[in-house]
Write a structure and sequence with these properties.
4 domains; five-stranded antiparallel sheet; about 10% strand
């Protein structure tokens, strides 16, 4: 019995040793002895061959020990050798420095190091985080602190035009996976000191850098604080893309409509920032989250603001028409063909009956079969290489459609309706998945209740849209609630000199610019 208790006490004593606060190897604060710090780092990174620990001696007599620690592939080796190690090792650099001054990093920073950005690490956690972020740690014997030097160097993708948001007359550049490059692209667009870029890290394991961007004086402070609160209220193991954060901070996670916007173009994000929105940039993600997001943003293209407002307004109306066709056309056809023949003209009804007389399946089954075929082809085209994916979609659609009609499995009118629905679906890429779900939902209702089910589904969708909010802003604004003064960039794109004010629900500074000063003065006097 006593031997069992003795073993248990010894076991718990062994577990408690690493947690002692007076042990330099496990204390978060630094020891002034270089060997102690290096021993901890070597133990921590003993199975990480990419972490380089280089020890050397510095000073006139070479009596002071020092070391640099960095991650191979994240730090610039040549810069470390030429700008850190060489000045510290070569004796000529110490002509004007006394050995007693080596006990302070200020003297080393002032006389030796060639780096635009350095900072001090006061504890072991900050040191480890700095090394894993790509910074170079300089450790000197006898100094409690550690100097972190920014010599970053890693492979990154060049700035290219994004595939999902192509433009003819606008800028061609798009975001990449490097956070600092993305923030620089925003700085190029908005050269305003009030553009705030707040940095934070999210992810217990990944410690992913995240930047919150907004324009001070335009964005609403309560929305900024609400975003920060939502980011802090959850703990997650890792954040590998902005999609993780979007799902965690969104207002309605179970809604098929996205209440947080995304964009790959710096000019589009800059325009949203100027309206009072907030951007969330995640390291490793080539697109940026923007919030609050409104439903009308899905129909606004970057090209709308680079062309003549009359032509772009017509194209925007075309997008609304394409949205209606992609959602309603197929369920409407199934309802008319299955339940409400009397609503069709006689010749059209006879033509549809003649086309379907040899088909063995009802209209609803035909629609489901062809829709599933199309979704499989679309998914295959996305997953396959670009050169092959387009050919698979075109050849597969032609072969399957023609073969199905010739075999009498489906009617020719159904193939035409499916093709029209598919083409209209691609006009609004941001609503592609949402439109697909809505279409199947309406098909289910139409298959049971006919066109009454379609009307019921549309009413339910509108009620659901009216109930959605994005960080306190109504999702259907300015349509519901109806705000006539905010409709100048909704269904039509008014000229810029007509859009003198920002959306009042997004920005605290309502005046958009300095054009039409006389008009603005009269507006202020009337208010």
């Amino acid at each position: 019995m006593f031997s069992w208790l003795k073993r248990k006490l010894g076991f718990y004593r062994a577990l408690s040793k690493p947690q002692k606060t007076n042990d330099d190897n496990y204390n978060s604060s630094f020891s002034s002895f270089l060997d102690v710090k290096l021993s901890y780092l070597k133990t921590l990174f003993q199975q990480s061959p990419d972490v380089i620990i280089r020890e050397f001696n510095i000073g006139k007599a070479g009596l002071t020990k020092a070391a640099v620690v960095f991650v191979d592939g994240l730090a610039d080796k040549e810069a470390i050798e030429e700008r850190v190690m060489k000045p510290l090792i070569i004796e000529d650099f110490f002509a004007n420095i006394a050995d007693t001054e080596l006990n302070t990093f200020e003297a080393i920073n002032k006389h030796l190091l060639l780096s635009a950005e350095t900072k001090k690490a006061d504890d072991m956690d900050m040191l480890v985080d700095g090394i894993l972020n790509g910074e170079t740690a300089l450790l000197i014997d006898g100094i409690n602190e550690v100097l972190l030097i920014s010599y970053f160097k890693w492979q990154q993708r060049s700035i290219q035009e994004p595939d999902t948001e192509k433009t003819i007359t606008g800028p061609k550049e798009g975001f990449i996976e490097t956070l600092r490059v993305n923030t620089a692209l925003l700085r190029r667009k908005i050269r305003d000191p009030n553009l705030v870029l707040e940095m934070t890290t999210i992810g217990v394991r990944t410690k992913t850098p995240v930047c919150i961007a907004y324009i001070k004086g335009i964005a609403r402070p309560e929305i900024v604080e609400e975003l920060k609160r939502r980011l802090k209220e959850f703990a997650i193991d890792g954040v590998l893309s902005a999609g993780y954060l979007e799902e965690l901070v969104t207002d309605s996670p179970f809604s098929p409509f996205r209440t947080i916007g995304t964009s790959e173009k710096p000019d589009r994000v800059a325009a949203k920032l100027l309206e009072g929105r907030i951007a969330v940039i995640v390291d490793g993600t080539p697109f940026v989250l923007t919030l609050p997001a409104l439903f009308i943003e899905n129909f606004q293209s970057t090209e709308d603001y680079h062309g003549h407002f009359i032509f772009q307004s017509a194209l925007r109306l075309l997008r609304f028409l394409a949205f209606f066709l992609s959602v309603v056309t197929l369920p409407l056809y199934v309802g008319l063909a299955s339940f409400h023949h009397e609503l069709l003209p006689t010749k059209l009804a006879l033509s549809l009956i003649a086309a379907r007389i040899q088909t063995p399946f009802p209209s609803l089954i035909e629609a489901l079969i062809l829709s599933l075929f199309f979704e499989i082809l679309r998914e295959a085209g996305i997953r396959m290489p670009t050169a092959v994916g387009g050919a698979v979609n075109i050849v597969g659609a032609l072969v399957l459609g023609d073969a199905a009609v010739r075999a009498g499995l489906v009617g020719a009118p159904m193939v035409i309706i499916i093709a029209l629905t598919a083409i209209a679906n691609f006009v609004i890429p941001s609503l592609l998945d949402t439109v697909t779900l809505l279409r199947y939902f309406y098909l289910f209702l139409v298959g049971i209740y006919g066109l009454f089910g379609l009307g019921f589904g549309i009413i339910v969708t509108i009620i659901h849209l009216c109930s959605l909010y994005s960080f306190g802003i109504p999702y259907l604004s300015p349509i519901a609630p109806f705000l006539p003064s905010q409709m100048k960039d909704t269904f039509l794109r008014y000229p810029f000199w007509k859009q003198a004010f920002r959306p009042w629900q997004l920005a605290i500074d309502k005046k958009r610019g300095v054009f039409r000063l006389d008009h603005l003065k009269k507006k202020d006097e009337n208010d």
